[in-house]
Amino acid sequence: AQSVTQLDSQVPVFEEAPVELRCNYSSSVSVYLFWYVQYPNQGLQLLLKYLSGSTLVKGINGFEAEFNKSQTSFHLRKPSVHISDTAEYFCAVSGLTGGGNKLTFGTGTQLKVEL
Amino acid sequence: SQTIHQWPATLVQPVGSPLSLECTVEGTSNPNLYWYRQAAGRGLQLLFYSVGIGQISSEVPQNLSASRPQDRQFILSSKKLLLSDSGFYLCAWSYGGGADTQYFGPGTRLTVL
C-alpha cells in the first residue's frame, strides 16, 4: 500500500516570496511522484512529475520539486510566487501495479498568495 | 489534441434519487479512465478505474457504480443518493499505467439535499 502526507493544509505567503510545499510518501515499491494544481472549481492540472533520473524536476509556471529517497519526500518549491499561483496543490504517488495507473493523492495544500 | 468532457457541471439532487454523471474523451483511443471524488479537506479518492470497455475496478465499496459502454465514455451512477455522496466528482484519463500522466476533466459539483 502507498500513502501521501501533506502536512500543511494552508500556506500563506506574500507575493514575490519563496515557497515550499511539503510532501512525504510511503510505499513498499518503486514509485512515480506527481504534483498537480487545482484552481477553484476546476479539474487538476499536472505541474511536474518524477519518474527516474535527476532528482530535481522542473515543471510549469516556474515550479520545481526534489525527490529525496532517503527522506521519502518530494517537496515543491518556487523561488518567487505570484498572485496567480493561489490554488490548491496536490502531491500524488503511483506505484507499479498490474493494471491502470492508481494515483494516491495527499489531502492537498491551499497556497494563498497575498499582496 | 485530446479533450475530456464532463456533464453536468453542477447538480442538486434530493436524497434517494438516482444519479448519472457522464465523462467522454476525444482525440485518443483505448484510454484508461478514472472516477475520483473530492470532499472538502480530504483530497481525492479514487472510486473506479477502467482499462477497457466493460472492465471496471472498484476501489471503494459504496452505493455508486461505474460503466464503460463505449471506448471513450465513462459513466458514474447511483440508484439512490445519500447525503454523503455530495462532493466534487472528477473524471480523468491516461494513456496507460504507471508513469503516465492523468488528465482531468473540469468536474461535476454534486449537492445532495
Any low-confidence stretches of chain B, pLDDT <50, length ≥5?
Answer: none
Give the strand tally of chain B: 11
Structural class of chain B, by secondary structure, is: mainly beta
Mean pLDDT over the full residue set of chain A:
91
**Fraction of residues in H or I helices of chain A:** under 10%
N-end to C-end Cα span of chain A:
41 Å
**Poorly predicted sequence stretches spanning 5 or more consecutive residues of chain A:** none
Continuous helix count of chain A: 0
Helix-strand pattern of chain B: EEEEEEEEEEE
What is the number of E strands of chain A? 12
Hey, roughly how much beta strand do the residues of chain B contain? over 45%
**What is the radius of gyration of chain B?**
13 Å
| SS-derived structural category of chain A | mainly beta
Name the shape of chain A in a single word: globular
Explain this structure to me?
The complex is a heterodimer of chains A (115) and B (113). With 115 residues, chain A is an all-beta fold. In chain A, 0% of the residues lie in helices and 53% in strands. Chain A is built from no helices and twelve strands. In chain A, strands 2, 5, 6, 10, 11 and 12 form a six-stranded mixed sheet that branches. In chain A, strands 3-9-8-7 form a four-stranded antiparallel sheet, with no helix packed on it. Chain A has a two-stranded antiparallel ribbon with strand order 1-4. In chain A, 40% of the residues are buried. The mean pLDDT of chain A is 91. Chain B is mostly beta strands and 113 residues long. In chain B, 0% of the residues lie in helices and 58% in strands. Chain B has no helices and eleven strands. Chain B has strands spanning 3-7, 10-13, 19-26, 32-38, 44-52, 55-58, 64-70, 73-78, 87-94, 103-104, 108-112. In chain B, strands 2, 4, 5, 6, 9, 10 and 11 form a seven-stranded mixed sheet that branches. Chain B has a four-stranded antiparallel sheet with strand order 1-3-8-7, with no helix packed on it. The N and C termini of chain B lie far apart (38 Å). The model of chain B has no long low-confidence stretch (mean pLDDT 92).
